[in-house]
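Bug: C-alpha cell stream looks shifted between consecutive jobs. Job 1:
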Amino acid sequence: MWSYLISTIELYSNHKSFSLGIDTLRNLWLLVHFKDLEIKNKTIYYQVDNGIRQRKKTKHPIRKMRKAHKNTAELIEYLSNKPYNILKLELEFTNGWKIKQKAYSELMFYTNSPEERNQLILKLLNVAGQGPINVSKLEINYTYYFKSAVTLVKINFYDIPSPDEFWSEEQVAEWRKDVEAIDRLNEEEEEEEETEPHVYSKSELLDMNKMFPNWDGESEPF
C-alpha cells in the first residue's frame, strides 16, 4: 500500500489550528519550509540514539536543548548532524504561529486566522505532492486519512467529534458521557447477537431438508 508523507488531517475547534499525521522521526525536514519565520521561543527535549553503534544496555539521559536558533533552517541543519531522537518539540514564532510535535506521529500547527490555516494546509500539501483539497468540506474535530493524494476518508469510531485542547472541561466531561453511553449500547447489541438463535431462511431450510431428511427443523441438524 502506498504511504503518503501526510497521512491524516484534523481541524481544531478554534478554527485557526490543525494537525497533520507525519512521521516526525524521518520528516522533520518539513519544518525547513518555515525558515522565513523568526523563532521567538522553543522547547525541545532530545535523547542521543547512536543506532546500531549503541550498546543495547546503554540509555542516554533525556536533555533539554539550550542552543539558540534564529529559524527552522538553522535548527534542521543543526539536528541533521546530531544523533538525536526528538522527544518533544514546540516552536513559537514572532508572527504568532506555533508548531508542536505529538508522539512521533503528528505535527500540530497554530495560526492566527481561518484564512492563514487554510493557506498553510494547502502549502504543506503541495510540498508533500498531495492535494489540493477543499478544507471547508472538513468537519471540525474529525480525523480524515488520505486514501489518495486528493481523496480523504473520515475516521469515525463513535460518530461524534473528538475533543481537542480548546474544549472546555464541561465539553470534555459531556463527551466522555457520550462515549460511555455508546460503548454500553454496543456491548448490549453484541450480547443480543450472541444469545439470539439463528433463524433459517426458506432456501436454507430446503437445503437442510435435502441434506438431512429426518431433521425436524427445530433442533440443530449436526
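Job 2, same session, no restart:
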Amino acid sequence: MMAKTVDLMQITHPGFQLFQKDIIDLETELPLFMEYCVIVCKRFKHYANMNHEYVTMMSLTDVVSLLDQISDTDDPAEILPLRELMAESAAKFKELCEDMASCIVNESVATDFYIRLGEKTMEYCFDYTGVEH
C-alpha cells in the first residue's frame, strides 16, 4: 500500500503549523512540536510495518525523555551530562529522519519533510537544552 504524503506529514495536527514556522517559542511550543514528531514517526512506522519492515524510534524516545529530565532540574551537575546525552540522541534522531527520507521514492516533498524534521528537532532540542551547535 502506498502512503499518502499528507498522511505521512500529518498536516492536520497542530504541530504541522509549528513545523512550517522558522522559529518556535521553545518554552511554550516545544512540547507540541515533540508530540507532532512522535505522531509523524508512528505514522511512518505504521506504513513500514505494513511492508514488513522493522523500524525503531528509540532515538526519538530518548530525546523526549531527556527533554523531560532537563526541564525537571536546575542542578548543573545533572544538566551537563544530560546535555551530552541530548547531543547524541538528537543527532541520532536526525539520522533516523534521513533514513526515513531515503525510503521515500519519487516524492521530493516527503523526502524534504523528513530531512527538515530531523534538522529542526535537533536545532530546537539543542537550543532548549543549551547544547552548542
